[in-house]
Design brief:
The protein is of the alpha/beta class. It is built from 17 helices and 12 strands. The structure holds NADPH dihydro-nicotinamide-adenine-dinucleotide phosphate.
Amino acid sequence: MTMRTTTLDLIMGQVAVRNPGEPEFLQAVREVFSSVVPVVEANPVYRRMKVLERLVEPERVVIFRVPWVDDMGNIQVNRGYRVEMCSAIGPFQGGLRFHPSVNLSIMKFLAFEQVFRNSLTCLPLGGAKGGADFDPKGKSDMEVMRFCQSFMSELYRNIGSTVDVVTSGLGVSGREIGYLFGMYKKLSGQFSGAITNKGIGWGGSMLRPEAAGFGVIYFIEDMLKRMQDSLDSKRVVISGSGNVAQHAAKKAISLGAKVLTMSDSSGMIYDPDGIDDDKLDWIMELKNLRRGRISEYVKEFDTAEYTPGGTPWNVPCDIAIPAATQNELSLEDAKALIQNGVAVVAEAADMPCMPEAIYEFMRHRILFAPSKAVNAGGVAASGLEMSQNASHESWSLEEIDQRLRRIMQSIHQACVRYGRSEDGFINYVRGANVAGFVKVADAMVDQGIV
Ligand code: NDP
């Protein structure tokens, strides 16, 4: 056993004892620490200042009751969370997730990841995450509104534009942000940048809804450019059909790629002719306005196939983009993708690939982009919205797109700088982890034991 393994195992043992029953959190910590333990070993100050031990302990966790009344007059009770993980480089910032699977482990894994994602963007933002075990699916607008108001009636005490900034995420998009912001404004008496992804007409930024998905494709573009290649004519499979999946598909199509699949939690559609702009508009209307199921696609476009419960990972492709949820791509899926010739895998969702799948991609020298780097476009745009709110400005779409492009480029460069292997292969996982870690660790050292 090497010295490196010993240190990692020792730390992970301590983290496991202190956080029982939190598998997703342990998975996320192990993934980051596997890369950064050698950096800590090479820098005794990090060790002396117990940077790793402090990083895995959230600065604050708030768990609260969210009672609300449904349309039938029944009282419902959900559980709300805000995990404020680390504010070493700026005020806490991170999205909200409304999904029945939400629990403390998932909140902590997402908050932990957010610390390094935010650091990578080079914006002065700490990391946090919040949410509730509430399922917006099948709820009326008024039910969603009552839930959001109850959720915010507690959360408002903890957030603020220089304290903790919340934004959208899985199950939380424009509608939910509107209701959350309305209640925050009423309770705090402030029209401020404490919440981002606001509507364009009331403090929101151009391109915020598109940013996470567009950023994914910008990052892939840079990966391919390094290999003297481009997205043109590439076959792309995407999972999910929510915000990130839709906008990744949109940008990929605009750059000449052929998008073959999309999915939701019920199943997957495969369109051998490719999902073009018109078909994607139809999907966006289906998902965002009618709140329908992806299965309806095959009734509208009869060249496509629908597989109930299916995932896209058996469809031959050049680029795979898991954009739905955590741990949605297994070792078996990775083997199928490799067998079918995949060249690039980009984690648009948070931690969608299981550790064994990532290991398999690395082993086969597949270009693999981890979520904290490739999906940082959302946080980048959230940071740009905060800047506009603070300076009472509103930047043009072109200006924001250019800034987003530059941020994604600099994240890619940081990954290449820290992730280059001796044979020239870029280990983007190591690159993203180390680049994100060093800045946070240095700030923690500078600020003393707090
Ligand atoms: P949405 O809620 O808009 O969409 C989520 C999509 O994933 C839906 O199609 C949903 O299907 C599907 N899905 C959810 N759970 C499962 C499951 N267990 N199995 C299969 N499909 C599932 O979320 P976003 O697009 O905003 O987020 C997707 C991912 O990207 C998440 O991991 C999120 O944390 C991450 N992310 C989001 C950012 C943002 O700005 N929005 C920024 C960075 C990361 P269904 O409709 O059936 O629920």
